[in-house]
Amino acid sequence: MIDDDDDDKAEQGDAVKAESSQAWQNQLEAAEKDHKEWWDRADKCEKRYRAERLSTQKARQRRFNIFYANVETLRSTLYARVAKPDVRARFTQTRDPLSRTVSDMMERTLAYCADNTEHDAAFRAGVHERLVPGRGVVRLVYEPETKRNEAGQEVIVDQKVNEEFVYHKDFLHNPARCWRDVWWVAFRTKMTREDMEAAGFADAERVPLNWCPEPYTNKAPEDVPEDLRRAEVWEIWNKTKRQRLFVVKGWPTLLRVDDDPYGLSGFWPMAEPIQAVTGNETYIPTPDLELYIDQAEELDVITDRIANLTAALKRRGVYDASVKELRRLAKAGDNEFIPSENFGSLAANGGLKAAFQTEDLSPFVAVLSGLYQDKDMLIQSIYEITGISDILRGASNPNETATAQSIKASAGSARVRTSQREVQRWIRDTLRIKAEIIAEHFEPMVLMEASGIKLPTKAEVQQQAMQAMQQQAMQGQQPQVPPDLANQVTIDDVMGVLRSDKLRSYRIDIETDSTVLEDAESEKQSRTELLTAMSGFLQQWAPMAQMGGPPMVKLGFELLGFGVRGFKSGRQVEEALDEARDEIMQQASQPPPEPQPDPALEVEKIKAQATEIKAKADVQKAQIGAVVAEAKGRQDLAKMAAMGPQPIGPQPVMPGGMNGPAP
To answer: What pLDDT sits at residue 655?
Structure first.
């Protein structure tokens, strides 16, 4: 009975897969029809960029490839250097060691992944696709590396997030007016049976290999070698149900269904593509070439005519056959004179001017001059359409002033600057998604190895704190956690921030440095202005800070930070400025230390104290002697009073020298 229930569930599952597969194949077919016209335009743009001949063009027609020149100029303007991540604590006004550690680890990990993947190549290819077909797409692929341990369990030994360029014909989405209306995207991959088996696809051995190289397109499948055939697998990301599905056209069931494989907040494994010209009616782009294709074709016609007229500009004419020397005259060298046997007759008959005549080339020259003028006007018109100014192409008028050339450069790059910001937005959003994948999936050990920052676990810190408190108790001290351990940032704290979407967004901000090639002199001037402004401010602020105390110190640092953040080159000193502000404010809040005494003055002070003590001792000694003498006198008077009254007058001398009767 249980087996029957399992069979029924399996049949129901197959039916659902079959129904879903057909539904998604219908979606793919509708999307291909929506993209068909743009793909045809993109093919023409690719051929024109590579200077390939179209079937409707003459074999020997000369052309002026203005499209290639414009693409190369704009590509170096939009993406001139490798984009590097810039991860910082979102709020730098307060000291937050945890946010600083999280941002440092994330920035180093992003840089490590960029150095070990095709980071730069993917973005350069995407910018090229933006300028030629009209759309650039780069997706992110999370690739964990696992192996079995001694217990037979799968453990992660390494993790990577790769940027992969997506060819414009390998990317589809549902018909939409804007990116917000897109609810599914699909990526096409050509896979062998081994690839499908490694991916764990169902029925990989029976899926039709429906793709082959172009030379074999019109041949029967059995006539195409097996090693050249592939299966076109569409990887569909359904944002509505947060699922990833794999479909092959013509196969009745889905190959595999995954539930939200990356767990991203925006679900998509890619940023919004960079596109050429789009409107409000459809999200399908229009290539830049379509905006000036008429002028480009007219430029080709003029170039071909100039070439033909130039080929017709030959020195041709007729001469008098009786003057045989004229044949040698056409081949004579510089400063060579040819002897004539009948020179007198030749001179009498009008000389060389009458002996031969050349074809008049002035009409050809006039036409060529007009064609060259038309050519220059067409090129200038194309530059006005595309926004490429003469300053961007390195051309300038030496008679113009520096101010005039600066105005031309600013005006000429106004429209290009919009495309530059779009490329920067695209790369920044890609890096943010990449950072989210790292935060959600990277293991702590892999994160520390990639960033080079080693942090203890919370258990290790607690153990160290207990040991320190036990030692304090044994020494008779009050047990307390040491400050360095109490403020220690642990890998558990870092992972807690990274694993939480809210904490991650609250604490750190992920940006990218500019990908635009900057003028070295302009950057140098900006740095010089920054240092000059800081020096002047510090000279005026230092006396005020000494007089005003901590409140004036705080105000001065706030003003200094406000000024530094206005300079692009000042971003590198913001953190150092914040640290210096905190340290100075902490020192300013503490009471000033007592001045150290002078040793010589201390000696004199000790001598004076000894003299004063000796004088006081002498006074006390004299006072004590007086008290003792007074007490002795009182004792004598007491003895006399005890003997009674004595006779007055002389007394007889007693024998023995004593008064009184003899014994």
So the answer is: 47
pLDDT in the model for residue 656: 45
What is the 8-class DSSP label of residue 656?
Answer: G
Per DSSP, 393 falls in state: T
Q: Kindly report the average pLDDT of the chain as a whole number.
A: 80
Q: Is 518 helix (H, G, I), strand (E, B) or coil?
A: coil
581 domain residue, yes or no: yes
Is the CA virtual torsion 493, 494, 497, 499 positive or negative?
Answer: negative
Bridge partner list, 640 = none
Q: Judge whether residue 558 has pLDDT over 80.
A: no
Say how far apart CA 219 and CA 224 lie, in whole Å: 7
Compute how many other C-beta atoms are within 10 angstroms of the C-beta atom of residue 475.
Answer: 8
Kindly report the CA angle at 622 between 618 and 624, in degrees rounded to 5? 115
Q: Does 578 score more than 50 pLDDT?
A: yes
Question: How many separate domains does the chain show?
Answer: 1
Q: Please give the Cα distance from 217 to 228 (Å, whole number).
A: 11
Distance (Å, whole) CA 376 – CA 77: 23
pTM (predicted TM-score): 0.74
CA distance 425 to 273: 10
Q: Name the token pair of 356.
A: 């031969």
Q: What are phi and psi of 254, to 5 degrees?
A: -75, 145
For residue range 380-409, list pLDDT tens digits in order: 888 888 877 654 555 555 565 655 555 555
> What is the C-alpha separation between 31 and 26, in angstroms, rounded?
9
Confidence at 613, pLDDT banded by 50, 70, 90: confident
- Residue that has been written with the tokens 């590509």 in this structure: 75
- Cα angle 605, 606, 609 (rounded to 5 degrees) comes to 85
User: Considering the domain boundaries, does residue 72 fall inside one?
Assistant: no
Phi and psi angles of residue 394, each rounded to the nearest 5 degrees, phi first: 85, 10
Q: State the average pLDDT over residues 214-234.
A: 84
Nearest to 420 by CA among 279, 515, 519: 515
Q: Which of 103-107, 266-270, 553-557 has the highest mean pLDDT?
A: 266-270
Report, as an integer, the average pLDDT of 19-43.
Answer: 93
Decide: 416 and 392 in contact? Cβ < 8 Å.
Answer: yes
For 66, 273, 560, the CA distances from 574, given in Å and listed in that order, are 45, 33, 10
Q: Which domain holds residue 569?
A: 519-590
424 within a domain of the structure (yes/no)? no
Rounded CA separation 449/112 (Å): 10
Q: Tell whether 530 is covered by a domain.
A: yes
258 phi/psi in degrees, rounded to 5: -115, 140
Q: Residue 579 CB: number of other CB atoms within 10 A?
A: 13
Predicted pLDDT of residue 643: 65
Provide CB contacts within 8 A for 61, sequence distance 6+. 300, 304
Cβ of 552: how many Cβ atoms within 10 Å? 16
